[in-house]
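Re: weekly structure request thread

Next one in the queue (424 aa):
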Amino acid sequence: MKHLTFLIMVIFVIGITAAHAQINLRDKIKNQTSNRANNKADQGIDKSLDKVEEGIGNLFKKDKNEGDQPEPGTEQQQAAPQDQVNPAVAAPPAFQSYSKFDFVPGEKIIFYDDFTEGNIGDFPIQWNTTGSGEVVTNNLFEGRWFNITNGDGATVLDEPIILPENYTIEFDVVPQKNQDDGNNVAWSFNVLSTTKPKDIDYGLARPGDAAIRFDFAYNTYYHSYYRDGTPELSGNTDKVRLLADKKYKISIWVQKERIRLYVDETKVFDLPKAMSKNYKFNMVRFDRGTAMFTNFRIATGLPDMRNKLMTEGKLVTYGIYFDVNKDVVKPESFGTLKEIAAILNEVPDVKVNITGHTDSDGQDAANLDLSKRRAVSVKAELAKNFSVNADRLETDGLGETQPVAPNDTPSNKALNRRVEFVKL
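Done, posted below.
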């Protein structure tokens, strides 16, 4: 009987144990399933967070790379001004936005400076100032720039330049914020006649003996001129707003007494009697503010394109622009291309060869290829935007092989960078 009672107790304990084990196993399975589900959820959340963090990281990396910042330790980064950081750079205007742009640059370059001579951080060789400035690179725009850092001074060409009756002046400019007012920009550009070309301050507030001055600000453009002892004559416009850290192309066209000024594609001023015929103008001058500028170009004469192409058989033009090492025709070429297209469309039987030329900077083979691609781009623009029959246009490129001047100065290199139209 005792054995029977013991056996029943053992069976009872085993049953309870088995039941408890089943409960534990069920709980363990449930818990493990829950844990695995939670782990998977956690992993999913972790992956999502990783992607978010990666996206945020890439966003900052993108902001850092926009503007083509150089690698740390390069000359370009070391020389870049610290106040030139503004990643929100507007896209360049489209080619067709220049449809009313009638500016055609002079055919003979008498001065050009892109500040490739001299060293970064030094004052440029061909200029003089009563203030201060230096050649810099920056993280927004390619090339070297002359950064005028003292707005109270005047900056002029070191050697006087006698300007003829007809000439053009062009330069790229990036206005800088006025240190006294963080929201405003202000700077001035003058064309002067002076009997003391080495005395930058001659005339003080009204420099020189006669002049026209253009003042540029963030909400207005202002011009004034004086001559022959007359009071100052002036006017203003608010056609275009000028912003800090944005690049603009300034184009000035003088024909005897008439002067026109363009900001990018917009004609801002057209003054018929501003340039006195009683004076010889011989100084260009920046003052009254701070700005960075480059590609400063003075050229004489309005090219007689029709006579050059139809009579002489070859038209050499410097009014078709490209960025450095690029083959895309820039929009400010519109005026020149429009004139050439008008000639070609009036004589539909004439065929021409478009030939690109470069300076000697860079590798020979690369320059040859670049010149050929640029000629093809010019043909494409004439056909696409000016309705010139493409079958009448042949293209070629000769790179640096046929220079018209020594490749020893910025001005001479600018003469070698050209596009020629040869009558066939």
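The chain is about 30% helix and 30% strand. The first helix runs from residue 2 to 65.
Next request, please.
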